[in-house]
Amino acid sequence: MNLIMIILSLIAGRNNFPQADKYQEERDNMVRFQIIDRGITNAETVKALKKVPRHLFVPKEYENEAYGDFPLPIGYGQTISQPYIVAFMTEIVRPTKKKRALEIGTGSGYQAAILAEIVDTVYTIEIIPELAKESTARFRKLGYRNIIGRSGDGYNGWAEHAPFDIIIVTAAADKIPVPLIDQLAENGRLVIPVGPSGAIQDLKLLVKKNGKIQTSSLISVRFVPFKRL
Ligand code: SAH
């Protein structure tokens, strides 16, 4: 890339990603074999996974494994989800440009970044202060101005910014937190793993229609536990 192209792409680009990304090919392969071949069809979701530099969301020592078909440790006993699960959860909440999303369990910030590529604003809450701080710094560095993060227990949602068209919970709860259901907008979609920690959980989708909740079970998953302060 010559200098003019670099300047142009800096001006045009929404995010400040490093120019020479040595992982682009790995990322394209991840999208092809783990995401598209497994049935993810939503164009915006696919585009976001092709774009977001997942290797910048994992600890340095795991950088070269970032595009593998598995979750990875991110410190403090927590994990970044497997790429397919991130894509699945993103597609199922039907993200579009004008929607506002709430995520509980920021972790590395990868799921929030994927959503932020598509929707208007992402609010995200992380219970471990260090991870909240690290992800906030990462959002700033990568230029995600439409992600608003804070540290705290996400059980009570974020009433100040409710209602949300999309709510994604990325930690497994025994029961679906009632405040989150209350903060779901009409026609809103909430996805959450439900079940005991350390075991197989049920990924559930809740849709609010005429004020009533319709619940369905999607797939089996394994997430870290939803904690309480
Ligand atoms: N979405 C994350 C996945 C992180 S794992 C990513 O893309 O990397 C789930 C995260 O949920 C962990 O960081 C954990 O600390 C956090 N968590 C667990 N219980 C929580 C709660 N009650 N409120 C907010 N975050 C919580």
Describe the structure.
- This protein has 229 residues and is an alpha/beta fold.
- It starts with a helix and ends in an 8-residue tail after the last strand.
- Helix content is 30%, strand content 26%.
- The chain has a 7-stranded mixed beta sheet. A two-stranded antiparallel ribbon has the order 1-2.
- Helix 2 packs antiparallel against helix 3.
- The longest helix has 14 residues, at 129-142.
- The model has no long low-confidence stretch (mean pLDDT 94).
- The site of S-adenosyl-L-homocysteine has 24 residues, from strand 2, helix 5 and strand 4.
Layout of helices and strands, plus pairs?
Layout: H1 3-12, H2 24-36, H3 43-51, E1 72-75, E2 78-80, H4 83-92, E3 100-104, H5 110-116, E4 121-126, H6 129-142, E5 147-151, E6 164-169, H7 178-182, E7 184-194, E8 201-209, E9 212-221
Parallel strand pairs: 3-4, 3-6, 4-5, 6-7
Antiparallel strand pairs: 1-2, 7-8, 8-9
Helix pairs in contact: 2-3
The structure holds S-adenosyl-L-homocysteine (SAH).
S-adenosyl-L-homocysteine binds next to strand 2, helix 5 and strand 4.
For the structure shown, list the relevant keywords.
alpha/beta, 26% strand, two-stranded antiparallel ribbon, 229 residues
Order of strands across the widest beta sheet?
5-4-3-6-7-8-9
Arithmetic mean pLDDT:
94
Number of helices: 7
> What class would the helix/strand composition place it in?
alpha/beta
The dominant shape is globular
The poorly predicted ranges are none
Outline the biggest β-sheet: 7 strands, mixed
Give helix and strand order, one letter per element, not per position: HHHEEHEHEHEEHEEE
Q: How many beta strands in the DSSP annotation?
A: 9
Strand content: 25-35%
* Helix content, binned percent: 25-40%
Report the span from N to C terminus.
Answer: 49 Å
Ligands bound, unique: S-adenosyl-L-homocysteine
Please compute the radius of gyration using only Cα atoms. 17 Å
